[in-house]
Prior knowledge:
This protein is an alpha+beta fold. It folds into five domains: 11-72; 134-220 and 231-311, no CATH class; 331-399, Arc Repressor Mutant, subunit A (Orthogonal Bundle); 439-514 and 698-725, ATPase, nucleotide binding domain (Nucleotidyltransferase, domain 5), CATH 3.30.420; 528-693, Nucleotidyltransferase, domain 5, CATH 3.30.420. Helix content is 40%, strand content 14%. A hairpin with a 4-residue loop joins β14 (477-478) and β15.
Amino acid sequence: MSTSGEVSLTQRELAELDAWSGNRPERAVRAAIVQDAAAGLSVSQSAHRLGISRPTVSAWRQRYAADGLAGLEHRPRSGRPVRIDEADVVAATLAGPPSPQRTWSARALADHLGISHTTVGRVWQRWRIRPDGPTAPACLPLEPPLACARPELLATWARADGAAFLVVADAVPGGQPRTRAATADERRMRYAALGAALRGVHPGDMEQGAAPPGAAVRPAPALPAGRLARWAGHRLHLVTWGGAAGPAGLPANTRTHVAPASMGWAATVSLIAQLELEHQPQAARVALDALSDTARELSRTPGGAPVWWLRPDLAAATGQRRAVHRAFDQPALGSFNEKLVIESVRVAGSLSRIEIAERTGLTPQAVSRITRNLLTSGILVADERRSTGTGKPRVPLRLRPEAGCAIGIHVDPELITHVLVDLCGTVRSRHTLAVTQSSDPQSCMEWMERTTQHTLAAAGQLGQNLLGVGVAAPGPLDAREGVLLNPPLWAAWGEVPLRAELGKMLGRPVLLEKDATAAAIGEQWLGAGESSTDFVYLYLGAGAGSGAFLNGDVFRGASGNVGEFGELAAYALGHVTPEGGPLMVPECAPMSAVVARAAQAGLSAAPGRHAYGAVCAAAADGDARAIDAIRGVARVVARGAVAMTELYDTDLMIVGGPAVPPEVAELYLAEISTAVNRFPIARRVRPVRVTYSTLSANAAAVGAAAGVFHMAFAPRLRTHSGTAR
């Protein structure tokens, strides 16, 4: 027998399985799971056919593969039971489908989860979820119900015996999120990763629920004094499972709710996480990264250590020391101050004039003059007035998306991506061109030119407000001359004067950036790095690269070729030539390396550009060969990430790119997070938060467009030499 879940049955073993199951219904389901595996059905197909969950199918397959009939005698500790976890269904609903479709249909979600669509419909009905309207539930069906339009997870605790609780704060006042909302890719990744991490600590999740009559109250840890001071003005809610008592230190007016058996603890935490990503994405990212890290550490601890997590303070958890630009009063710096106002509003999402003055140091008169000009020009627009309790209601100002746009083009050895991005970071259009060995530079640039003209014409008024065209390309490149210099994975192109040639064809100036640098710019302007001054972006695609944002601005280096990740990984692993130079590290081409490792392990995949996607899909279905292939590559990449952390002394690392789709992102993040917090010399004083890119596979293309915004709007002063700082 193997331990990977693969099952091959002889006729004698089939007969033994039939005799074992007999007429006992509880055994018949287990036998059917094994028979489906032997027939070649995937985990998802078997779950859908039998109307049970995918983790249940995986668990029974693995038990039989390891122990034969003996493994089917009792339910394993790993995996969920046949009963449906309603919180998991709702969390999956909020996370959204992996397709471009924005919301689930009941049948599509049922197929995805391996349950019946009538079950999904009943859950949606009980939770009052409308797939054709707002998908967030109005309240959690606890006892008593908990209104949860905008909850905030403050603390959670769980033991292996089923006792658990979580503490949430009441609705947070306010309107739109003050930072960019989480993308669909990020929501799916965090849902899958957090649920897996929590169930990895305590797999018996569905054994929770209300305590049996007469059961003893189980003790729980106390909250540190003053930890909840920030939420003093909010009503707190305590949700309990398995008879757990709340922690000591909660306010007297905290309301207690008991979870039903149909809601698991891990799934409920994942559900709260999805709701938080909707209304306060930046704070949620920091908190959820910390919770995932806690669960990962505990999953490595034998003996079922209890989960105990407190929400970290945003600034303390990330070590963020955002550079606060302050105003200058000299008349010559009017442009700087205008950009300063735009930057402040962009980062916050919306600000009143008083708040702008507080953040920038400009006088109220200067803010009034500048915002009046920006409102007249259409860059800013007024939102609905909001009351602060006393005095005249404030009028928040925000960027007008249609005030400007940028084209972003990512030139990659496998795929060229072309996007149109508005001033608020929304991707308005996306086009791709598959690259083959016969794709020459001239034909590719002609496609870029045609696509740009078509996109701008289709965008109407927005297209007339084009601020520029940004191109992201693999290194090395000559940034001053705008020339690609024989990229290692694209040597057939040779030296291409991309910036000059494309600029001539478009009749517009073109900004050329290294792809990893562009991804870092995009993440700072539009994603997870938007409130941090210092971070490293680890970009994984056909190759591996890195970009950095340091002291509040992009760090390009002297030639624009900063962050050559492959050489750092080679030195970290001791892969050097006899002369001491770096050797090529195969894993620094993550996609091809994963496919090669999977093939060596016996996992066949479709040839060509879709092979990596097939391996990722197999890993998402629990195939041990695919999981090991990805983890093996991630471990090598992680050693290079350690060198990046040591080099830049940053405490935030963002991971993204085409090689990190949501279904396998946690495999990469777990290995990288472990390495950068284990090996560096300064690990005791510099915990590193590793988080998922909110721009994901489009990071380089969107980052190229964000580079145009950065050049146009980022406040800089000029030195005597004339260079911007």
